[in-house]
Each structure stands twice: as structure tokens, then as C-alpha cells.
Write a structure and sequence with these properties.
heterodimer, A: mainly alpha, B: about 475 residues, D-Maltodextrin-Binding Protein, domain 2, 2 domains
Amino acid sequence: MLEDKHNIKAWFYLAPAMVLLIIFTFYPIFNAFFLAFLRDFNYLQGTWEGFTFFENFGFVFRNPNFRDALTNTLIITFVSVPIAVIIALLVSVWLNSIVKFRGVFQTIFFLPYVTNAIAIGMAFAFLFNRNFGLVNTMLGWIGFSPINWVGLRATWGMAMIAFLVFTTWSSLAFRIMVFLSGLQNIDKQYYDAARVDSTRRYRIFRRITVPLLSPMIFYITITSFIGSFKTYTEVIGMFGERLGPPGNDRAMITMVALVYDALDRSGVTGALSEAAAAAIVLFGITLFFTLVNMQVSKKRVHY
Amino acid sequence: MKKVFTLLMSFIFVLTLSACLGGGGRAETEVTVLDELPNEPINITIWTGFGQANADLMQAMFDSFTETYPQVNIVQLSQGGWSGVRDATIQAIVAGTTPTIVMGYPDHFVEYLNGNAIIPLDDFINHPDHGVDLDDFVQGFLDENRQDIFDGKLFAMPFAKSTEMVVYNRTVFEHHGITFDPTQPITWERIIEIAETTDILGTGAMQCEFLINVDSAANFFVNSSRQWGAPYTNANGEILIDNATTREMLSFFEDLMNRNILAFPIEWDQAFGSQPFQRGDVCMSQGSTAGTRHNIPRLENGKFGVFEMGVLPTVQKEGGTFSSMQQGPNIAIISDATDAERLASWLLIRYMTNTENTANFAMNTGYVPVRVSGFETDEYQAFLGLIDRYNEVGLTGLTFDQRDRLPFVQAASAAFVQVDWFSFDPAFIGRTSSSGARNESELLFEAIYAGTRTIDEAIRRMLSQLGQ
């Protein structure tokens, strides 16, 4: 009886969050699955010609940009996430170790998090400008000739390098913030004990900091992978709607761009179902890598 | 707990199904034309892609319309460009928050019609009291809105029609002893001859790095295909570009690009060539007559300072079919409106396209009148007459007011020369649409310009992007 009473109370307290989750999370997910199996769905009229299992997924897999989108997304994810996690970890350890100007540096490192991704993308496109960008100016100081990173006739390789630098930098802020809060929760006595034993700093980092921070590292790795699979705004910010350098359209297309490409044709019959199918394919890929991540991390995370 | 979860999931599933099944589709709309406008408050919202200058001109029209119909309240909202109007309208159709009137292109209307979201205007046009005489409208403008895909009905009226023109740096060309007749189109062969026989191309003091810029690679592809007689698309949605004539045309332009005779705005990381033209990076620029005000030379510190500008019709192919792009928005009424709102909307459209207003809007914007009678008004003829005065006394002989108006008169004259060659590409919708084909043709030309794809690769890519 008492338990029932508590259950009702619990549901009552959960209700506001549940209602919001149902409307803005569960409903869109179910709807995306539903739309992906409709044949010739007319978005403007809300009508369709029966159900189909594979047709919309067939359109996604046969899309001439699918392979490029998947390749780009995987490269962005598997290059930028590990690099960004390592850099964020090192920066946060350094920030945690300094006393002077810690607040100033924390603010500087946190600024990208509160800045619009499109604006940062445009700023980076300027930084990587062939003729007057800061990057080429600095490379010029050490004797390099100007490199065409993102301009007219830029190659996929150069554009990808510039983009990886941008995404790595822009994603540092949140990771540093999380790591820093984790570091501040590590009991100081571990470090005092290590110091008494004259342990080297690298060993302290490997044997104390990393293991005790492993739940945070795991959390950041998982969320970063998921976030990276959803890369889109940053591509628009840096390359515009062509999704690539001028003359090399769609060179930087990602899986989410594939979804938006179909959504952009939503006035055309069937396009919304194609977008839903592409979103589900992305969901499947993300889920697969998340499960792999969880499996791999099982033995390495110390709670 | 399990029961509650199952219940919750069932609820979501039912919700999903009902949301999807709920609409059942919007039926084709019956149009009832009221005999007179009810004397009750009527709100009309109109979505455009115009910028502030044109919005101000529209507002002046609305203000004078509401003096006659004080019960009508008109609100215009710019969606920041014509593709913005299309995107916003599609979302609004689904959400049931459409405006009353929407401006746009046949490409867009085909999509709206896929949701039965616009109404045919024929009953209004033929109404004894509220109708209009279609014979007074430029037939080509009506034909654009009366394509096969619209089943012979008129779903939109032409409002602001424009074409393309070439602005050129008269100061530099005359320095090299080159003059043009603004009543005749220049040909690509003449442009090549200029590049080969003069030293206008280069980085010197009175030289331009590029000879001509073309703003819209999509228009350029479509219009050049027509000039060359190369098939592009058809009303069935087939993409017909895989042919020898298209290849010949693309090879011709690839050669010009390689010789700095032809450039696209991506050369300067721009969307339009107006700034490079004003700066003196390029001596000529082909773009919309509606963009006249953006090309007017005003940079004191540009390479040639504030130079004298001339305007010519669109470049043509010698011995080819003369053709110029017909563009500019049309105006349609959304089906989710009451009979009173529809009639008020129609009366507003009729007012906006009457002889006086179409002439006045054209004189202030670079668009052309949509009615023949608009061309023939004394005001419009006097407006065009400024060209004769300019030819007679030169720029320095004009008053400041006349100098301000001159570029618009030049653009209007260039457009007038081309009226008989106006053409448009057929609107279609299937797994892809005519607007999708246009986008891809732009990317094709840009890739050839950048040298990132060969002509064959670019053609194959365009076909594959369009699912063919």
C-alpha cells in the first residue's frame, strides 16, 4: 500500500520530464521509424501509398553521395575525437595544476562553447584563407608557400585537414570543462602519497589521474563519438551550402548532410521518408559504435 | 512498471499513427468568387523574398490599396530570398500556418500544388467585375505560369519580371577604342575577338584580370543550352544533358575560362560579381536586371575609381538561337484562406499588376512591366527616353537625378530589347524537381570552372545526383 502510494508520487514528480520526453524525443523517433517505411509519402498532404520495407533505405544506399558521406563522417569521428579527448585531458591537467590566471585561462578555453558554430566556422574559413589567412601567414614565417586549404580548387585532403583542426578546437571547451570538474574531485591524498614516494609526473598522470578520471573519459568519449557522427553545422559554417570548397561541391558531405539534403526536397513525394531512412541508418551506425565503445571500455573504466 | 511502460509505448504508437493518418490529404480546392468584398476586417499576409528597397515600394502600393479597401490589413514578410520563401512555405503548409499570398517561381508552385496548397486564379481572371484582360499581359510571362504541369490553369500572375543583362566598364572599353551598341546583343565570338585583338586583359593600369563574369552559373547553363540548341530537361523530368551539343557548348566555355575571358563569382569567393566589377577585377558582368543597383560603380578606391557603366543585353551565340532567361517572382494565393481573404488577395494582385503600378515598380527596380500597357505609359516611355538624352549629351550633361536613374533605364532598355527572346525551363516534379536540376547545373559549371572535374565527369555526376 505504502509502496503504491510512493509509486504514484514518483510518477507525479516524473510527469513533467516524461511529457517533454514523449513529445520531443520519443514521438519524433517513432515517427522517423514510421516514415521510413512509408511508400511515396506526400509530406504536404500527409498521404502515402502503402508500406515498404526496403525502398526508402534503397534510395539512401544508392544515393551517389552515401559513400562519401559515410567516409567523411568516419574520418571526422575517428581522427578528431581521440585527438580532442587527449588534448582536452592534457589542457585540463595543466589548468588544474596552475594557480595564477587559472580563471582567465578557463574562460578563454570555455569561450568556443558559448559561441555559435556557424560563426566559428566562418572565422576558421577566414583563418585558412589562402591569401590573407593567419595559418598561411604563420606557415610563411617558417618558409612554407601558401596552401589552398578551403578556397577555389582546394583539394579534399586540404579541406579535411582544415576542418579537422576546426572541429578539434571547437569541441575542446566542453571536454576541458568536464575533465576539470573531474580532476577537482580527485582526492588530493593520492597525489600527496605519490609525491612522498617521489613518483615522476608522467607516472602520476598515468597511474592516478587517468584511472580516477576514467568514468569522465569514458563519458566524454561516448558523447563525443555520438556528437561527431552528427557533424553538420560545422561543415555549413566553414564551407557553406556547397558542403565543400568552391568547385569541389559536397567534398565534405556528412551523414547528417545526407538527411538534410533529402529534407531540402521535402516538397517532392517520398523525400521525407528518404530523410527518415537516412536518419535511421545514421542511428544504426551510431548505436553500433557506441556499443563497441562500451564493450571496449568495460575493463578500463574504474568507478 | 512493465505495464506502465507498455501502456506508454502504446500511447506513443497510437499518437504517431493518428498524427500520420490524421490529415488524409488536402483536397483540390473549389474556388468561389464573391461578388463583392465583405465590409469586415480582412487580414492578408504576403511572403516575399525581396530586400528592404523593394519591400518599401511594395508597402507604398499596399498603403494606396488600403485607401480604397480600408477593411483590408496587409502585412508583408520577407523570408530573406526566394529559396527562403519556398522553404518557409513548405513548412507552413504542413503546419497549417501559411500566408494568404506567396510570391515565387513555377518550380516552387509545382511543389505547393503537390499539397493542393495554391488555388487556380482563372475564375477571378474571368469574373465580370473583378477580372483582368490577359491580352494586356506579356504572353511569355503568362506562359511561364501556364505550363503543361499546371493543366492549362493559371495558378500565379506575373508580378516582378526580369531578365539578365551585361554591365560593362565603359571607361576601360573606350580607352581601348571599343564601343558597343546597347540595342544589339554582344556575342561570345565578339568577346573572344576583343580578348584576342586588344590588350584589355591583364593586370596593368587600364586592364582587367578577367573579361566577363557570369553571376548565375545555373542560368548560364540553361540559357546557353538553348542558344546552342542543346537539350536540357523536359516536362517529364528527364535530364537530357548527355549529348554532343552540350559537350560542345561546355568545351567552348571551358576554353574561355582557361583564358581568363570568362569567370564565375567563386573566383573571388563571392555569390555575385558586382563587387569584383566595381573593384575593377572584371570588365563586364552578366547578371539579373533586378540587381542593377548593386552594380552601379561607386568605389572611389577601386582600380578605376567611379567609372562610367554601360548596359547591354545578355551575351548570345553567333548563329545560334537568341535566348535570354526570363526570371523574377510571380504571385499566387494560398488555398487555406476564406473566400473573403481570397477575393481581397486577388484584388490586391490585380492592383499590384495594373498598368500604373507595374510601370512604376519597373522604373524603380530594374524589373520590366508585366503589361504591354505598362510599357506604353507616357511615364515609362519618358523613363526610357533618358537613354536618348544620355546618348546626346553624355553622362556629364545629365542632372544628378537623371544620373541616379540612368542605370535603371539602361537595364530596362536592355531587358526591352530581349523580350522576344525570353524563355524559361519547364517546371517538373518527380523523385527530383526542376529546381534540383538547376542547382546541379550550377555545380556542374563551377566544377568545370575550377578544373576539379572534366566535362564528361561533370555530366555523369549531374545525372547521378539527379537519379538518372
